[in-house]
Structure formats: C-alpha cells, structure tokens
Write a structure and sequence with these properties.
alpha/beta, Rossmann fold, four-stranded mixed beta sheet, 8 helices, transferase, methyltransferase activity, methyltransferase
C-alpha cells in the first residue's frame, strides 16, 4: 500500500526547515509526538509524553490544532469531536487560527483505495508542525491565470522540480535554449535565478502564435515571456 508520508530523522529542526524551504511536492513537516496503529494507543502515547512538550504550552504561546483524515471523509462536526479528544493536553495559551505560535496536527490514515475503506485508520499521527513546503507556489504560478501560455507550457510543479534539479539559487544565470512560453524561466526566477532563453519558433518567442485558451480569439498585444515575469514581480530577473 502506498503511503503519502515518510518518517525521516533530522539532526536538528533547522535541517528540516532547510529541506522544506525548497520542496514543491512536500506539504508539511511534523515533529512527531505520537505514531500508532490505533487511536486509543496514540492518545495513550501523547498523554504520556505531554509533559516533555511543556515549552509549547506556555500562556504566551498561541496555538491551534488541525485535524486531517486521509482516505476517508468526515464531517466538520466529526472532526471537531476528534480535536476535542485532546483536551488532556495542558495547553494554556490562546487559540489563534491564523499564524499561531504552535500548530499541532492530528492525522488519521485510511489508505489510498477508493473502495472497501476501513472503519478504523491504519495509522494515526500527532505532532507539531515544524515547516511547510512550497505548495502555495503551484497556485501562484498556475497556467490558468498566467498571462502568456502556449501548447507546450510546462506544468508549474514540473517546472519548479526542474529548477530544483538544476540547483537554481540566488544569482544563478539560466539559459533555456528551447524556451517556448518561458515556463522554466518563471520557475528559475522564482528561486532567484537570472533568466533568458531562445527558440526556433519566432512566432512563439514573440507571442504571435494563435491563442491556446478556449474562446480566446486572438492574443493580447502584451502577451509575452516578459509579461509573465512582470506578472509575478520577477521582471528584474529577466535578461532581455
């Protein structure tokens, strides 16, 4: 059975944050406080360890607890009941739903199959959210809202993965010799690189090809790679 999580050991929290700071496939990284095969066992484990995490329960630290179920749907009311089951935690700080000092996460994993879903989870997890990946970039760089796209525009996630493979960093100089509509340039510039490109297709390079969006009759005069860079406030990274 495929599992959408990894158990990884880091030498420090800063190492975990460093990894997630460039990951576009990773959603979040948790400091694991409990991992069991049943809900009751998890609560027993977390209850026994709660004293070790007293520093996160200080009155000065705001908090929230998120409940996530993978492979099975629950109503909001059912999720609230799961959250309230952690009422034994000695949390003394105020609740803050946006940008709290401490975000705790409870996860129930019911597998990845869409049929014969079990009534109880295969595994349950509880821990502190240490860092999140860069999934928000997928929405920010979505082709649906990009100014200039073509038939070969690359999916943002693939573009960002390729930029990571190229180890693009602040100050890198990136040339895409088959630039097309510039998807790879956008991703590389997002990671701090200075970018430029070339292409055998003159019309594509200058935004003169037929539009690829449904119902769009003709391209706008300002559709271009440069317009894309300006759209994402990356114009200063474009070597034109």
């Amino acid at each position: 059975m495929q599992e959408p999580f990894w158990l990884v050991e880091f030498s420090s929290e800063s190492d975990a944050k460093l990894l997630t700071s460039r990951s576009v496939s990773l959603r979040k990284c948790l400091e694991l406080w409990g991992h069991e095969k049943s809900i009751d066992l998890l609560h027993s484990t977390v209850r026994g360890k709660s004293g070790s995490f007293a520093a996160y329960f200080e009155p000065s630290k705001s908090f929230k607890i998120e409940v996530e179920t993978v492979g099975r749907h629950f109503t909001q009311q059912e999720k609230v009941a799961k959250l309230e089951a952690f009422d034994y935690l000695p949390i003394r700080g105020p609740v803050k739903l946006k940008d709290p000092d401490v975000c705790l996460q409870y996860i129930e994993f019911y597998g990845t199959r869409t049929v014969n879903i079990p009534t109880t989870p295969y595994e349950v997890f509880f821990g502190r959210n240490v860092a999140s990946g860069l999934r928000q970039l997928l929405k920010k760089l979505s082709l649906k809202t990009r100014k200039f796209i073509g038939n070969t525009s690359m999916d943002p996630q693939l573009s960002l993965l390729m930029a990571n493979q190229a180890q693009v960093n602040s100050g890198s100089i990136i040339l895409d010799p088959f630039v097309g509509s510039g998807s790879l340039l956008v991703a590389a510039a997002e990671f701090g690189g200075y970018v430029f490109g070339s292409d055998i297709d003159y019309l594509m390079l200058h935004g003169k090809t037929k539009p690829t969006r449904i119902k769009q009759q003709k391209r706008a005069k300002d559709e271009s790679i440069k317009a894309n860079m300006k759209q994402y406030n990356l114009g200063h990274k474009y070597i034109d």
